[in-house]
Specification:
The chain is of the alpha+beta class. It contains four helices and six strands. Helix 1 packs parallel to helix 3.
Amino acid sequence: MKSHNKFSLPILLLFIVLTTLQYSCQAQNSQQHYVGVGPIAWDETVAAFAQSYVNSRFGDCNLIDSNKQYGENLTKGSGDFTGQVAVNLWVAEKSNYDYNSNSCVGGECLHYTQVVWRNSVRLGCARAQCNNGWWFISCNYDPRGNVVGQHPY
């Protein structure tokens, strides 16, 4: 008789979630390459921070910055809400960024500028399910971007 490990399904689901979040790193790298910025690398320490933070906010899923040592992009959504979807939302702000004035024009752009920030070289993302069934995602960047007076690239 074959024995079944009761932890195999949760471990498989965790692997799928982590792999999906690591795809957000690839999505961000494609945007960085587009503006001539070097690649960003997945970092387990930064990812552990992100996971700890989303776990602490999972109940209410209010988008409140952690105000810690890392740059941060937060979002939430329902259904099949993955790291790739989150990155796509942040990158959609690109049209609001004016490089010449180094400012947001016509809407939010700071999530986009963090995605392409030239000095951010390490990334970690995590997600947790909210009480209402939505997903809360945090991507954290080291070193942080959006430094006042500096261009992202």
